Amino acid sequence: MTKHNKLDRWVKDMAGLCKPDSIIWIDGSEKQKKNLEKEAFSTGELIQLDQKKLPGCVYHRTAINDVARTENLTFICTKRKSDVGPINNWMSPPKAYKKASDIFRGSMKGRKMYVIPFSMGPVGSPFSKIGVELTDSIYVVLNMLIMTHVGRDVLDALGCDGEFTRCLHGKAQIDINKRLILHFPEDNTIWSVGSGYGGNVLLGKKCLSLRIASHIARKEGWMAEHMLIMGLEDANGHIQYITGAFPSACGKTNLAMLVPPKSFKKKTYRVWTVGDDIAWMRIDSDGCLWAINPETGFFGVTPGTNSLSNPNALKTIEKNTIFTNVLLKPDRTVWWEDSDGPVPKKGIDWKGYPWKPGRLDKDGKVIKGAHPNSRFTAPISQCPSVSFRLEHHHGVPVSAIMLGGRRAHLAPLVYESFNWQHGVYVGATMASERTSAQFGKLGEVRFDPMAMLPFCGYNMGDYLKHWLKLGKKMVKPPRIFYVNWFRVDKQGKFLWPGFGENIRILDWILKRCNNEVGAIKTPIGYIPKIEDINMSGLNLSKDIQRQLFSINKKEWREELERQYKFLTKLKNSLPKEIWQEYGALNKRLK
Ligand code: GTP
Ligand code: SPV
Ligand code: MN
Q1: Residue of 412, 433, 430, 417 whose CA lies nearest to 505
Q2: DSSP letters of 520-536?
Q3: Given this model, what pLDDT does residue 268 score?
Q4: Could you tell me if the CB of 301 is within 6 A of ligand 1?
Q5: What's the pLDDT score for residue 266?
Q6: Dist CA 463 CA 253 (whole Å)
Q7: pTM (global) more than 0.85
Q8: CATH for 225-293+390-589, among 2.60.120.10, 3.90.228.20, 3.40.30.10, 3.40.50.11440?
Q9: Residue nearest to atom 5 of ligand 1 (CA)
Q10: Percent of residues, the chain, with pLDDT higher than 90
Q11: Which protein residue has the closest C-alpha to ligand 2 atom 7?
C-alpha cells in the first residue's frame, strides 16, 4: 500500500507487538466506509439510526468508565523531566514504552488493525501535518474520516520519506487501570491504550494538534492553540476574524457557529465558522497573525444543543453524524437533555439501560438519558455557516483573541487587556469551573492557562515565553479580550442570556479593534461603557447590567492571592514579564 519504507516497517513492527489478525489500510473511499459500518453494526459496536430521519447517522456507546479525557493518565514523555515542566505528567520514554507495550502486547488478537493516513490541515499545504493512526476500533476510523483528511492522497503527499506522527491506538481491555495516553514529542509518536473515548483516541485532535503540535510550533515559531476561529462579516461585506480560547465545554462550538438573534438589529453580521476547537496560527509575510483550523469536523457536546441555543449545530447534525452516549429512542432516533421536542416517554440510556424520564438512582438523583459529555461527530462542511476559507492554506487573519471560562462570580462579561503582554498575563491566570469534559470534581475552579493546561506539550513557563516572543514579532498583534458568559445572580441563575446574544459582545470587541469606541479603565483592564453595548430587545434591568460588569476589588485581591500560588507552581521557568504584570495588577488593586 505504501512506498514509504519507514512507514511500512513501523506498521509491521506495531503489528508484531499487537498481533492483529489482519491489517487494513484506510483509503478514504465511501465504499470502504460503508463496509466498515456494516461490520460494526453486525458486532454491535455501532447501531444504525433511522435512515429516513437521520440519513448516514450512527450511534455508539462507550464503556461506562470511559466517557471523558483522563488527564491523570495522560503523559508527556521526554528524556528530561524538566522539559515538560512542573504541571504536566511526565514519564521517561523507556518506562512509558515498556508499560504500554505490556498492555498492547497481543491485544489485537482476533481483531483487525486499521491504518489511517491523515492530514491535519489541507493535504499538501506547507502548514499541514501528517499523521498515521493505527487502531483496532472501527469507531475511531469512522470518527477520523469525519475529523481529518484521510486517504490515498495523504500517502501521496507523504511520498517515500515524508515526516509523519506515528499514532498507535488500541482498545485493549478498556480497563481504566490499564489506560495510558502517552506523547513522545522527541520521537514524534503518540501511544494511546485502554480507552475508546474521543479525546483519548482520535489522535489527530488533542494529542497531535495540541500536545505534539505545540512542541513543534515552539521550535518552528508558530502557535498551536485550543481555540475556535470565526469570521464576522458586516453590512459592507468586510470580514474580521476572531479566535477564542475557552476550556473544554465552555462554549467554543456554540460561539463558532452563532446565529445573531432577530432582536439584534442595529448592525447585521453574518457569521462564518472556521473552527470550533483548534487553531494553528503563524505570522505571515504581512507581519500579522493568521489562523487555520487543522480539523474537518466537529466533536461537539450534545446536551443543551437545541434549535434555540444552536440552530446551526442542529442543521449540521441532520445527516452523516456519529452520536456517542446520547439516549436512543425506540424509533431509532436520538435525544439528549435540553434538546428540541418533547421528552421521550422511554428509551435506552447512554449506559444501555431502559430509561424513563424522572427515574432516580440510588442516591436520589435523576438518571440522565444522555451523558453530560455525550458528543456528536459531524463534518464541518455540513454547517450552514461554514467559512469559504476553510481549505485555504493561509487561513484567516486574526483581529482579536478572546480568552474565557466559566466563572459564576468575579469575572465581568467582557474586558480588554491593556496590551499583548498584559493579555498574556490574563491568559496565564485564566481559571474556570471544571466541566464534565474532564474526569474530576465538577464545578471546582482551576487555573487553566490559555485553556491549554491539559494540552500543552512542554513546560508551561516556556509556552508563555513563546507567546510573549511572538507578540513582539507581530507588526500588529491581535487585541486580547476576556469574556465570561457564566456569571450568576444570588439565586444561581445566569445573568447573561448567552448563545446568540453573545454577538453583542463580539460587536463591542470589533468596535474596539476598529477604534470606534472608548472604554473605562479599571484595575483588571478596559471594560465597556454600557451605552456602547447594544442591549436593545434584551430586557435586562439596569441592575443586572451593572452586576454583569461589576468588579469587586476585595474579591479580585483574593483572586490575586490564588494567582500568586498558581504562578509560583510554574517555578523559575515563568517569564519575568508575568511577574511584572502580577506586580502591576497588585498595585492597581490596592
Ligand atoms: P469542548 O468541545 O469540550 O472543547 O467544548 P466547547 O468549548 O466547544 O463548548 P460548547 O460550545 O460545546 O458548550 C459547552 C456547554 O456550554 C453546552 O452545554 C452549552 O449549552 C453551554 N454554553 C455554550 N455557550 C453558552 C452561553 O453563551 N451561555 C451559557 N449559559 N451556556 C453556554
Ligand atoms: C475537549 O475536551 O476539549 C474536547 C473534547 O474538545 S475531546 O476531544 O474529548 O478532548
Ligand atoms: Mn475542546
Answers
A1: 412
A2: EEETTEEE--GGGS--T
A3: 85
A4: yes
A5: 66
A6: 25
A7: yes
A8: 3.90.228.20
A9: 249
A10: 95
A11: 199
Distance, CA of 17 to CA of 20 (rounded, Å):
9
- 3-state helix, strand, coil split of the chain in percent (to 5) is 30, 25, 45
Which DSSP symbol is given to 380?
G
What pLDDT, in 10s, does the model give residues 358-371? Answer: 999 999 999 999 99
Quote the pLDDT of residue 440.
Answer: 67
Domain range annotation of the chain: 5-46+68-220, 225-293+390-589, 295-382
pLDDT band at 491 (very low <50, low <70, confident <90, very high): very high
Q: Which ligand is nearest to the CA of 438?
A: 2
Nine-digit cell at 203? 489522535
295-382 CATH, one of 2.60.120.10, 3.40.640.10, 2.40.160.20, 2.170.8.10: 2.170.8.10
Give the residue numbers marked as catalytic: 250
Task: List C-alpha distances in Å: 384 to 283, 312, 317, 373, 388.
Answer: 29, 6, 11, 24, 11
418-468 pLDDT tens trace: 999 999 999 999 999 887 777 666 778 899 999 999 999 999 999 999 999
Ligand closest in space to the Cα of 500: 1
Radius of gyration of the chain (CA): 23
- Paired residues of 48 in beta bridges: 58
Q: Domain 5-46+68-220 belongs to what topology?
A: Phosphoenolpyruvate Carboxykinase; domain 1 (3.40.449)
**SS3 label, residue 525:** strand
| H/E segment holding residue 219 | helix 213-220
CB 451 within 8 A of CB 247: yes
Rounded CA separation 116/152 (Å): 10
